[in-house]
Specification:
One of its GO terms (molecular function) is ATP binding. It is a single chain. The radius of gyration is 18 Å and the shape is globular. The chain has a single domain, classed as Rossmann fold, CATH 3.40.50. The longest helix is centred in the last third of the chain and has 18 residues. The relative contact order is 0.17. The strands form 2 sheets. A 6-stranded mixed beta sheet has the order 6-7-8-3-9-10, sandwiched between helices. A 4-stranded antiparallel beta sheet has the order 2-1-4-5, with helices on one face. Helix 3 packs parallel to helix 5 and helix 4 crosses helix 5. By secondary structure, it is an alpha/beta fold. It is 39% helix and 23% strand. Bound molecules: adenosine-5'-triphosphate. The site of adenosine-5'-triphosphate (ATP) has 11 residues, from strand 2 and helix 1.
Length: 257
């Protein structure tokens, strides 16, 4: 049995059908990258997994237990085991780096302050930002902010890490740093990772497996080698950077029509 299973999952927003019938397995210890055009539902998938959005049909199981039917009271325990690095890192600018990283720990666990201090220091070390506890997020670069976001996610020592477009908006050097960090974090903490990205270079570097979403379904999945050699036209177009087939005006604007 896979660690995470989406079965027949349906998700709609009013008339818009994001998922018609989503099937996806995520295996313990793997690094799975989700690719697909803008607006195809990649972030929605991650949010359903941690209960920020609810599925309209089907089942989602985590570690053998169904989670899609859980109430708001039960999700904090799940979010303790599934950490998320949100798009843009989502730091609180009015709080120091220390308080940002400690935030998740305080929310999820009752720990004495000296243990929080240790866990924050270790998480910042793990992301290559030792000693930055007193800095304010506004004084950090985009790459450093992402790393603080990652420190916050790993401080709770999750079993699964979700990354929503971790390299978007970063220059090539910081992109490379984040890619390496994703690979190292997986090894160091033995976590299962799910990464949503538009960046195929990153996908090739960090993935054990890649799954492509298109119009409500997983249309393809395979290893990095499979992706490089596939003759599936949707995957090939995506790898080559061709605009996705879409009827969504926002997406057309984003991809320049
Ligand atoms: N809370 C919401 N309310 C209404 N519609 C939503 C909501 N969240 C997402 N959507 C819609 O669901 C669709 C999928 O969104 P999602 O953010 O998952 O796309 P994505 O594949 O992650 O795209 P991108 O790569 O641009 O981030 C989009 O059409 C989006 O407008």
């Amino acid at each position: 049995m896979a660690l995470i299973e989406f079965r027949n999952v349906r998700k709609v927003f009013g008339p818009k059908v994001v998922y018609e019938d989503l099937h996806l397995d995520v295996h313990a210890g793997e690094s799975l990258t989700i690719i697909g055009g803008s607006g195809m539902g990649k972030s929605v998938m991650l949010k359903m997994l941690i209960g920020l959005l609810r599925a309209d049909g089907g089942t989602i199981t985590f570690d053998g237990k169904r989670i899609d039917d859980k109430g708001e009271r039960e999700f904090p325990a799940i979010r303790r085991r599934i950490g998320m690095l949100f798009q843009g890192a989502a730091l609180f600018d009015s709080m120091s780096v220390y308080d940002n990283v400690a935030y998740g720990l305080r929310e999820h666990e009752r720990l004495p302050e000296n243990e929080i201090e240790e866990r924050v220091a270790k998480a910042l070390e793990d992301v290559g930002l030792p000693g930055t506890q007193r800095s304010m997020p506004t004084s950090l670069s985009g790459g450093q902010r992402k790393r603080v976001g990652l420190a916050r996610a790993i401080a709770i020592r999750p079993q699964v890490l979700l990354y929503d477009e971790p390299t978007t908006g970063l220059d090539p050097i910081n992109t490379e740093r984040i890619n390496q960090l994703i690979v190292e974090t997986k090894k160091l903490l033995n976590v299962t990772s799910i990464v949503v990205t538009h960046d195929m270079e990153s996908a090739f570097e960090i993935s054990d497996r890649i799954a492509m979403i298109h119009k409500g379904y997983v249309v393809w999945s395979g290893t990095v080698d499979d992706a490089r050699s596939t003759d599936n036209p949707q995957v090939r177009d995506f790898i080559m950077g061709h605009a996705p087939e879409t009827d969504d005006a926002a997406t057309l604007l984003r991809y320049g029509g």
